[in-house]
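Extended Data, panel c. Modelled sequence:
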Amino acid sequence: MGVRLNRKSKSNICRLQLHTSIMENHPPLNGIKILDLTQAMAGPIATMLLGDLGAEIVKIEPPAGDQTRSWAPPFINGISAYFLSVNRNKKSISLDLKAPEGQEILKKLAAEADILIENFRPGIMDRLGLSYETAHEINPDLIYCSLSGYGQDGPQKDWPGYDLTVLANSGLLSLNSEEGRPPIKFGVPIADIVSGLFANSAILSALYERTISGEGQHIDMSMLDANFTILTHQAFNYFATGRNPRKLGSAHSSIAPYQVFRTGDSFIAIAVGTEKLWKIFCSSIGRDDLTEHELFRENVLRVQNRDRLVEELENTFRNTTTSELFQKLLKAGIPAAPINTIEDAVNNPQIKARGLVSTIDTPYGKIPVMGSPFKMSRTPGKVSKAPPQLGEDSWAILSSLGYSEEEIESMKKEGIVKG
């Protein structure tokens, strides 16, 4: 690896590189290399977003590929839509990590990386020859993120964790229901996504801390921890009362009216968060009488008498369409929105104005992509590379590590690499 700088020198160089990168308008994570050993959603969305910000993402896939390559239909140009959704801005190398040769390649990649993120069950990386302790010996600067269902310790650490089971175990799933009805999973894997975002916060914090200390560290990110954390006020409602929160469907536990209402032709979401808005809201719908009603004149009473309030409001709304009601509320400055379908959202003029849907040319044809959410004045996020085909970059990555064409061909024949 050549001369290893001391930590203080490396810290100063990291700061200089960081400042130079910003001055030259490079992406904010330009020059940061990430090894992505994750599959499904939580890890891949974390690394995809870091790739949007300019990090080089090397996705290490097993010979059969990331499991989501087979989570289909639907397909887009022969590739799983699920896989495409969270794997842009990445390179792909396909390695058999059960083979000693595959493990040796992984170690060489780790020696050059800034960040490694994996989402195996605890102990699997040890068996693959690259525990955190081993990785730290190879590269003391490496930030190593283990993103698992239940964490690296505790009585449930070996439980398998997927979005639905973590939602159930965290308490979140119990909230997503109405009285007398079973819980409903959210339409996207929200537990996975929350975990990926928490992992990114930890990774970026560790990356900044490394510019000061010059050292990497191990991040133990648990999906259960992340999703228990977002119970927020519902957990404190339990702390305050000792009772489980009511199952309110779309309604808010502490504000009313704040939920989805039925109109004459469909549904609308309305959020009246202050007493000032309550008076404006009542005036806009022609129900000034509700502002002085003994059951509704302040928020505490409206929450206590929520069912009666909903009945009153829906009796009023049944005589108007969602579109008519929405225009009234919008004009009055009341937070409200129709319930858009995915088609409605994709074609929403605000989504289009923000550049959140576009198409790109790829080796497998033109495909639609979602844009980056990172809007920054000098270093915005961007989509620079299509989601890769399995092992698309294996040859280039191995060549960069010093492997000859003959060695690569030999590993291909032995099934150690694929591309």
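The chain has 19 helices and 14 strands. This feature is highlighted in the accompanying rendering.
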